[in-house]
Specification:
The structure is a single chain. The chain is α/β, with parallel strands linked by helices and 428 residues long. The chain folds into two domains: 103 residues, no CATH class; 311 residues, P-loop containing nucleotide triphosphate hydrolases (Rossmann fold, 3-Layer(aba) Sandwich), CATH 3.40.50.300. 36% of the residues lie in helices and 19% in strands. The protein has 13 helices and 13 strands. It is globular and about 75 Å long.
């Protein structure tokens, strides 16, 4: 029988479940090639590691690790190594049962399964599974609205591969000398202090005392300044300088810079990279307590979001923690058939959440979290942004006041009116 990648994981998980049920702590570890090992510890000193290794080899086939089963002491690593955030706990210890956890080593996408319990309440991540849905434009419109309400807003460009938000908020002359990529690289060698990371937007001018600050992905274009060599090193993950910690430190440094130059930012908008990438994963799971998930109503989009939300469904704890931090945004809604489009979008979104992070509830289960399709406060209920032809081929250098257009403001009106109500202080 040929054992494929998915089969190896599910069969190895079955063996890990069996061991955990017997009182043994088990870590199911998968390396960059997909090879799987069980790392066991606990009070049972009578484990037959040779027999377990034979069963693991049979279960995982070519995906069995070189050492299919190891005791914790055999790894030579301290017990602290096998603690969050390196691993995801699927089931905590209970009387008579051991802890069950998984560890994905050094692979893109692993960060999706590390959900922080208490991220910053002032940070909002704007994310899209697919690009081209107007996420960056929506970030500008939301920043503008919050500033009009007297808020101090910091916009951080986390789309390192395709930076764009700064071109909508800054002129070439007002760029800071450095960007997020500079902090991520300099922090690898402890040299991140004193970077010029933020500047106030000259293009958004609130009528009151609100402010919009910008932290671009790249610094000011000048002789000797390079970007690609830094980008190649920005995502490096080492035990001493993990990418998640450096990204959090970078955003914190930008917040501190705004505070020194003006006042603490009330809201930090993280314009995330699209797709399944660790920078998006860290932004959603670790940095913010509200994530706006942009989408259009298409089969490709919903297939993608089912894969994404399914990462959290592996752990009931993660699913419960993350799901109420999420809210869908229906982007580019055609105004000619707005009602029908939003109904279809809502139905598909509710189905997507129900298959992944909502509870599989019985009708009489009052404690289950499974919002109905018409629940307007549920994560799947879409915030609409209407399609606006004025934004096609937008060139902010020739039309810097584009965000003041009545048609553009009408397209974003419900979005910018609702999101502040979702924030911790109401945005008032």
């Amino acid at each position: 029988m040929t054992v494929r990648f998915d089969d190896a994981w599910s069969r190895s998980r079955g063996l890990a479940d069996e061991l955990a049920a017997s009182g043994v702590d088990v870590v199911l570890s998968r390396d960059v090639a997909g090879r799987i090992s069980l790392i066991v510890s606990g009070t049972d000193t009578n484990l037959d590691l040779a027999e377990l290794s034979s069963r693991m080899t049979e279960s995982a086939g070519p995906y069995a690790g070189a050492a299919p089963v190891l005791s914790l002491s055999d790894t030579g690593l301290s017990p602290e190594f096998f603690e969050p955030p390196r691993l995801v706990v699927l089931r905590e210890r209970e009387p008579g049962r051991g802890r069950l956890a998984i560890m994905e080593q050094g692979v893109v996408g692993a960060a999706w399964r590390t959900v922080a319990e208490a991220p910053s309440t002032r940070r909002v991540t704007l994310y899209s599974y697919k690009g081209g849905v107007g996420r960056s434009t929506a970030t500008v419109m939301l920043a503008r609205e919050l500033a009009e309400r007297g808020r101090c807003v910091l916009v951080v460009d986390l789309d390192l591969e395709s930076p764009g938000i700064s071109s909508l908020l800054l002129t070439e002359e007002t760029h800071p000398d450095h960007g997020l990529v500079d902090f991520l690289v300099e922090s690898l060698v402890g040299n991140e202090f004193g970077l010029d990371l933020v500047t106030r937007s000259p293009l958004v001018k609130p009528s009151g005392n609100g402010e919009v600050w910008v932290a671009p992905a790249a610094g000011r274009s000048r002789d000797g300044y390079t970007y690609l060599p830094k980008l190649n090193r920005a995502y490096i993950d080492t035990p001493e300088h993990t990418f998640a910690r450096r990204l959090d430190a970078a955003v914190t440094a930008c917040e501190t810079a705004v505070q020194k130059l003006s006042r603490p930012p009330d809201h930090v908008l993280l314009d995330s990279r699209a797709g399944i990438h660790d920078i998006a994963a860290v932004a959603i799971t670790d940095l913010s307590d509200l994530s706006l998930l942009f989408a259009t109503d298409s089969p490709q989009t919903w297939n993608g979001y089912r894969q994404l939300l399914g990462q959290w469904a592996v752990s009931p704890l993660d699913a419960r923690t993350i799901r109420q931090r999420l809210r869908m945004v229906a982007a580019m809604v055609p105004s000619a058939r707005e009602d029908a489009y939003l109904t279809s979008f809502r139905d598909h979104a509710q189905d997507c959440f129900a298959r992944t992070v909502y509870d599989n509830a019985e009708p009489d289960d009052q404690d289950a979290y499974s919002p109905g399709v018409n629940d307007e406060a549920a994560p799947h209920s879409p915030l609409p942004i209407l399609f606006s032809s004025e934004l096609i081929g937008l060139d902010p250098t020739t039309n810097p006041d584009w965000h003041q257009s009545e048609l553009v403001q009408a397209a974003y009106s419900e979005f910018v009116d609702t999101v502040p109500k979702l924030l911790s202080d109401g945005g008032e």
